[in-house]
Amino acid sequence: VQETGGSSAVSKCSAAARGYMQDRFLQLLAGRRRRRAPLIHRGYYIRARAVDHCVQNFLQKTQSHPRTQILSLGAGFDSLYFRLKDMGLLHHTVVYEVDFPNVVCQKATLIKGIKELSVLVGDAAVEGLGAVTFSGENYKLLGVDLSELSELERALEEAGLDSEIPTLFIAEVVLTYMENSRSDALIQWAAERFPQACFLLYEQVHPEDPFGRVMQQHFRQLNSALHSLAQYPDCEAQQRRFLGRGWTECSVMDMNDFFFRCIPEDEQQRVKSLEPFDEYEEWHLKCSHYFVLTASKGMEPSWTPLPSVTVPHHAGPVRIAGSVPAAGFAKLSGISGLRRYGHRSVLIKPNVILTTGGFGEEDGQHCRMRNFHVLSKSAGCWKAGCVTMKSPDKRLGERLYHTVSCLSDSLALMVGGRTSPSSAGLGMLWLKFPETSSPSDPDDIAVELVNLQPAAEPATLRWRHSTTEVTFKGEQYLFVYGGCSALDPVLGDWYFLDTRELSSTVIAVEGAVPESRHSHSACSWEGGVLIAGGLGAAEQPLGSVCLLRELEHGFQWQAVETHPPLIPRYSHTAHVYEGKLLLVGGVWFHASSVPGITVIDLVTGLCLDYVINVEHLEWPLMLHNHSSVFLPNEKELLVIGGGGNCFSFGTHLNKEPVWLSLSNILTSH
User: Fold this and answer.
1) CA 581, 582, 586, 592: dihedral to nearest 10 degrees?
2) Which of 195, 215, 252, 496 has the highest count of CB atoms within 10 angstroms of its CB?
């Protein structure tokens, strides 16, 4: 548990060094400096922002009181006191910090040895005896095990904590490491002993969905299990916990809510512009698995959401129409090349599926995937193999978030994609394969890569876009739409690529232009294109479905109305079958469940959600950054890959391809 505190301090320090927050004291207290990834920076930024938001609120609302106090439980190497003191906000406030005795001793030694810190504590600072390890005019460091409530109470009394003045309790990922009976007792003691108090809690939720299972496993491996999750698995349970233990008001929101409702838009934009970023799924999943709670008693709550900000939530529980069984492809679990995300899988001919690009596992290493893989079915049996690649530069296929469009039995076009999010998008590649290749042995399939970079259209220098076949006046085109580029985080433009010339053609398009987006789905339908969902310019999921419909003189954008309205989502895949749009997985802000299969009737607009039954899978199935292939004769979906970098909990890659049987839900429609 103590090691998690040290790691947290280093991560906050890295975020501050990159400009996410202003805090010159973090480096002095963290000691070691280590550069973290942009996803970690965002995660620790929003954590620090939530705590600061509530602390500043408390100080502002208690300005008229002659004395107030802040009690930080499990404070570790946090810099809160030094920041507040430096900003001149502690004129009448004493800060008490409590942690394990050895942590507090280390912190006291640091403070005494660094003038920039010791000067803020003041000349009167002395080393204490007993539990009070270090004491300044308005700063007290106490070495006590929080789970021993009677010892804590005795130490606080000795340090001069006054139960009659307004008090803010802070527990930032602390109580969850304690047995529930002990943390519950602490929450109740705080409400009973302090007539004017606020309690700020920042912790994890949703332990049983795929991301939650990975999160729990990570903390178990660190020997610091999250005890509160079993009894308090969601925000509502945490709210009931406080209201049932003496607190009179309690507000709680997950961190997606907090980001959009409590952080001004200009600050959101500042944070987004600090460094190249392309881990949206993991960012939103991390935010849906952490919450900030403020409870109060005898005073105003420490909470001020921004007025009239809407977040794309779905009101109430998701109405589930039924379930879809999932079955693992255990025979292929040893094929590491199929464990990847940000890749593409396409049916290049009957019973032959080609998987390209992405980030995954190859030869025991996590890396951008250079090799292509094939799944082929012969005599009713699927086999996997590594493709023989013919190319002077085998790195050409090394890319994420590209598209692959199969144009004939021997030709496919790879469009766009990226290596790192800070580099420019990649251009186009022809993938050539023999027309007559037998699928009986996937290892026999060879693919020739032909680089088209010199002829690359601006249309292709993007990623997280869609490329869909359309027909206009009998001619075949590829409709390239949306995505991201090195210059624009969200694109809303489109191009019609002539499939013979690979040059863009101007075709008239009328109607209301859809909102810019990336990570959406796109399917060919009746000569046009169906676009569904995606992530918009504000980094919020979209719930719109748009049809680009062929007219005599061009195309027209039309909105497809669904009822009930489609729950906003992105990073899903999609297929059309007999007038129905099937959406597979994705990420949404509705934290009580994860997206399964959604079926939209394109004639009536009826929209039905089905949960995926994963009881036969022994590992968490993450349905984002995956690819899927629909086999209409069998009414089955094959999901290949998926997963991502789960914040600081490690990279999760779906273990093997998964079959989803849709026969029941497609027949019942």
Assistant:
1) 100
2) 215
- Can you tell me whether residue 398 is helix, strand or coil? coil
Alpha helix stretches (DSSP H) within 535-635: none
* pLDDT tens digits along 181-229: 999 999 999 999 999 999 999 999 999 999 999 999 999 988 889 999 9
Point out which residues pair with 530 in neighbouring strands. 523, 547
Instruction: Tell me which DSSP letter residue 281 carries.
Output: H
Q: Enumerate the β-bridge partners of residue 199.
A: 169, 295
For range 479-498, the mean pLDDT: 94
Which of 419, 493, 413 has its CA nearest to residue 455? 413
CATH of 321-661, picked from 2.120.10.80, 3.40.50.1000, 3.30.70.270, 2.40.30.10, is 2.120.10.80
Cite the DSSP H helix spans in 273-327. Answer: 280-288
What digits encode the pLDDT tens for the residues 617-666? 999 999 999 999 999 988 999 999 999 988 888 899 999 999 999 999 98
Within 251-377, residue ranges assigned H as helices are 255-262, 265-272, 280-288
Alpha-carbon span 190 to 615, nearest angstrom = 42
Cα–Cα distance for residue pair 548/113, rounded to 1 Å: 67
pTM higher than 0.85 for the full model?
yes
Q: 554 with 509: CB under 8 angstroms?
A: yes
235-243 vs 180-193: helix axis angle to the nearest 10?
Answer: 50
3-state per-residue secondary structure call for 31-73: CCCCCCCHHHHHHHHHHHHHHHHHHHHHHHHCCCCCCEEEEEE
**Domains of the chain: which residue ranges?**
2-297, 321-661
The CATH code for residues 2-297 is 3.40.50.150
Cβ burial, residue 172 (10 Å; 0-12/13-18/19+)? buried
Equal fold, 2-297 vs 321-661: no
**Residue 61: both structure tokens together:** 């609302």
Query: 158 and 130 in contact (C-beta within 8 Å)?
Result: yes
Question: Any idea what the Cα angle at residue 213 is, between residues 212 and 217, rounded to 5°?
Answer: 115
**Long-range contact list for 552-556, CB < 8 A, 24+ apart?**
553/508, 554/472, 554/507, 554/508, 554/509, 554/510, 555/470, 555/472, 555/507, 555/508, 555/509, 555/510, 555/528, 556/509, 556/510, 556/511
Q: Which of 351, 508, 528 is nearest to 437 (CA)?
A: 351
